[in-house]
Design goal:
Oligomer: single chain
CATH architecture: Alpha-Beta Barrel
Order of helices and strands: EHHEHEHEHEHEHHEHHEHH
Shape: globular
CATH class: Alpha Beta
Number of strands: 8
Number of helices: 12
Length: about 325
């Protein structure tokens, strides 16, 4: 089964350690849960790497910090020719399916660096960013995060930012967004929103997780939910079997196998999930999904096929939604 799967993961925080000077992503002997070599050896074909601006840089140094993350991404890609390549458009996806080298894409987690300037969305797109969430856990000038007391919706500036995302074809990510903002974004987003790394609130009552109503709405819009390995978002035993539980819950709630994928949060978790300690273990997840009764076709969709379908859809869309320099 593994040789025929295309493994895609939409959230890892590995760039933080690179920016701190603790590791290089082409070095498999370094610390951390994810790198180019181990990902390739595991059979992974595409990884979204996240740029998260730490609170101490907000607000005055947020943009400079975000640009440093983006520079770190391109420095790592350029340092590993033949091992990894950037993925930014529909034409890049053929290589993802065909084989080596590993594809990597850029995401921004939290819109603090945008301020209230919608023009920065097109700047980020030009620099290679393809996925953007408006908030992290708290409040910024755009919206409230999932852990913000009061949990409000999008601000006027936040709505303008979504309109700018619509114009360039930036994928809207609802992970970390408060529930009211989730619904408001679904109303105005041109592309189907995604949850890059969010689990099921019915199984773990955490504000970062999605309710069943949200899960169904995301699926109905054509979005995908990436199941994450953050133990606080898993609940229960918080192990490999619990990750499978969340996948099965999405399948049950939506009645389809087309709206769930992986969003590990490798290198962003404080304590690894037993059985999924790093990217080299991801094949065990496919085995357990099969062991719990899912067909080979459904397992392949969960492990990466659904994310590929989504990306082919949004990047192969109308010219108005497919921005080019």
């Amino acid at each position: 089964m593994g040789a025929r799967m295309t493994i895609v993961d939409t959230h890892a925080d590995s760039l933080g350690a690179v920016l701190a000077g603790r590791r290089r992503l082409f070095d498999p002997a370094a610390e951390g849960q994810w790198d180019f070599v181990r990902a390739t050896q595991s059979g992974q074909r595409l990884q979204f790497l996240s740029c998260w601006v730490e609170p101490e840089y907000v607000p005055d140094r947020a943009l400079a910090r975000l640009l440093a993350y983006i520079e770190a991404f391109w420095r790592e890609v350029e340092a590993a020719p033949g091992l990894v390549r950037p993925v930014r458009a529909a034409e890049d996806l053929a290589g993802v399916v065909a084989g080596a080298p590993l594809g990597v894409a850029l995401a921004v987690e939290g819109g603090d660096a945008l301020g209230t300037d919608p023009g920065r969305v097109s700047l980020l797109y030009r620099l290679g960013v393809r996925m953007l969430s408006l908030t992290w856990n708290g409040r910024n000038q755009l919206a409230d995060g999932a852990e913000e007391p009061g949990a409000g919706g999008l601000s006027r500036a936040g709505r303008r930012m979504v309109e700018a995302m619509n114009r360039v074809g930036m994928i809207p990510d609802v992970s970390h967004l408060a529930e009211r903002g989730f619904w408001e974004l679904l109303e105005i987003a041109a592309l189907p929103p995604v949850a890059s790394h969010s689990n099921c609130r019915a199984l773990a009552d955490h504000p970062r997780n999605l309710s069943d109503v949200q899960i169904r709405a995301l699926a109905e819009r054509g979005g995908v939910q990436g199941i994450t390995y953050v133990r606080a978002f898993l609940g229960g035993t918080a192990d490999l079997e619990r990750v499978v539980d969340h996948v099965l819950h999405v399948l049950d709630v939506t009645g389809t196998d087309s709206s769930v994928g992986l969003g590990s949060d490798f290198d962003g978790v404080e304590e690894a999930v037993p059985g999924l300690e790093d990217v080299s273990r991801v094949g065990a997840l496919a085995e357990r999904l099969s062991g719990r009764g899912l067909s080979e076709a459904t397992v392949a969709r969960v492990m990466g096929g659904n994310w590929l379908r989504y990306l082919e859809q949004v990047w192969g869309g109308t010219p108005a939604l497919h921005y080019r320099l």
